[in-house]
Write a structure and sequence with these properties.
The complex is a heterodimer of chains A (255) and B (236).
Chain A: H1 2-23, H2 32-71, H3 78-116, H4 119-125, H5 130-167, H6 175-185, H7 188-214, H8 221-251
Chain B: E1 4-14, E2 17-28, E3 32-36, H1 43-51, E4 58-63, E5 66-67, E6 79-82, H2 94-104, H3 110-123, H4 139-152, E7 157-161, H5 169-185, E8 189-194, H6 197-203, E9 206-211, E10 214-219, H7 221-227
Parallel strand pairs in B: 3-8, 3-9, 6-7, 7-8
Antiparallel strand pairs in B: 1-2, 1-4, 4-5, 9-10
Helix pairs in contact in B: 2-3, 2-4, 3-4, 4-5
Classes of the chains: A mainly alpha (255), B alpha/beta (236).
Bound molecules: adenosine-5'-diphosphate (ADP) and magnesium ion (MG).
Amino acid sequence: MNGIYNFFNGVGQFLSLFWAAICSLKFFSSSLDKIFSQLFDMGNRTLPVAALISLSIGAVLALQTGIQLSEYGIQDRIGGIVGVSLCTELAPVMAAILMAGRVGSSITAEISTMSVYEEISALKTMDIDPVKYLVLPRFVACLIALPFLVIYMDLIGWLGGSIVSNLNQTISVSFTAFYNDLSQVVTFSDIASGLIKSIFFSITISITSCLVGLTTEGGPREIGTSVTKSVVASFIAILILDYILTRFLILVGLL
Amino acid sequence: MENNINFNNVSKSFSGKVVLDNLSHNFKLNEVHVILGKSGMGKSVLLKMLMGLMTPDAGQILINNKKLDDAKSIDNLKISYVFQFSALLNSLSVIDNITLYLDENNIDSKENRLKKAYKILSDLGVEDSASKIPSDLSGGMRKRVAIARSLMIEPEILLYDEPTAELDQINTRIIAKIINDLKDTTNITQLVVTHDIGFAFAIADTISILDEGVIKISNNPEMIKETNHPLLDPIA
Ligand SMILES: Nc1ncnc2c1ncn2[C@@H]1O[C@H](COP(=O)(O)OP(=O)(O)O)[C@@H](O)[C@H]1O
Ligand SMILES: [Mg+2]
């Protein structure tokens, strides 16, 4: 009973903070420098790891499917398969998981520390709305950063796939053949589906991590608990949302 | 009718535990009022309600007979709060902390904001720390910066939550001097919560004792001394 209450309470708080963040968008232009500094920080935290992850996912994907395909002599289809799996599913989900782990956790750590040390209360005493001051820049920066991260991981993943397809003796598909097939198979709507997913993921991550930070109460010990809670909640939400969004995108004919 | 802050039958409980129990009291404006009380007696809760950071379960708080709803301002009467652990933003330098209120609310020109900030910092003797990060300062310096931040708001009422907790004697005296100087040079009503008895007597016009959810005694320091209230016994 308590669990169900907590769940719906959490969803309610999420929606109300989301709405507050949307309303605070009217302060967008006066928050530009904060948004840029968040973007810079997010890039620093994610880009190097994202390159590593997508390169290796692309490579492993090409290796596994390529060898299977070569048994039927259709390894020249590898480009399309790697291309589509990456941009519709793997890159958006991996980017979101990475964002939640690296960026969401640091947002929660920072904001829950501010809650515990009464910095949030101090903002209120100065007539400064914590949503405008803290949530808005992170919300907007996440909304910009995650789709970019997905495209970045698409490209590097494809590169990883093409390198392995080219170098592996069994597969042995040239770069030109790989990208030829990829460009024929991967449609604009495949890439768009991945980006649509990433927008939903980004809202989930930024709002969840800010919400958990802002609602942290008690002593410094709670900071660690909050970070774990925020990352786990984001992971679960991302995985459930991914399924729902995939169903939806198939329904509307984008996938 | 005299100007005052009036707590009218204010009650507050946390999960069944009564902290303030039908507390009624008048605090006169334009003086230094010290609230003494043992730890956990609800001193911070009382201040936070006056600041609007917490709402009473029952009763009301009136300032000059006007109801305090969200404490932001009544007829532009401003209240500010010096937090127990200073609560400066560690993501900003000292000077950015000080100008934050003016910056975020777009008050005054950038140049005037800085001028005002440096004036207040130097009045409090911390202008050398302007470019430092709050977490690099000593507790005493942080407290002075926190007071400077509150003064930037130009408050009519200034609340201090245990301003000398964790400070040594020298720093405690510096804070006492700041409060006394403000008393002499401004009309700011200062409400100070503490359990440091020596400090209380060094600054107070009026001392009140908060115990068991209500204000038990309230009087000038000389009269308070004569009550021999157990809380005044330093060993208790
Ligand atoms: N936000 C809160 N949630 C639950 N209990 C609280 C909260 N704030 C204060 N309390 C409780 O109220 C009582 C009084 O707290 P406080 O005003 O901080 O005491 P103090 O006089 O030491 O400042 C304490 O028992 C404390 O546990
Ligand atoms: Mg307290």
